[in-house]
Specification:
5-stranded mixed β-sheet, alpha+beta, 3 helices, single chain, globular, YaeB-like fold, about 80 residues
Length: about 80
């Protein structure tokens, strides 16, 4: 089974979101990542190589999958204009 670990940046940003519908949408996307982490997100390049991103309008969710440990590390959640 795959384990999910949340970074402090993600926890901080997620706690500030007041829209419950958006939070539910993010939780559903986290379930999809947990089921198939290598297929869901878009692989990043250059200085962010090794991470993946998933677009959850209007935010981007950044995560890294550690295959050997079977751990998904949720790195950050940020607005698409703050990239």
């Amino acid at each position: 089974m795959v384990e999910i670990i949340f970074d402090d940046n993600f926890k901080k940003f997620f706690s500030k979101i007041k829209d419950n519908l958006l939070k539910e949408k993010m939780i559903k996307q986290l379930q999809k990542i947990k089921e198939n982490p290598e297929q869901v997100g878009k692989p990043m390049r250059y200085n962010r190589k090794g991470t993946r991103e998933l677009y959850i309008k209007p935010f981007r969710l950044s995560y890294k999958y550690h295959i050997e440990k079977k751990i998904i590390e949720i790195l950050d959640l940020y607005h698409r204009k703050e990239q």
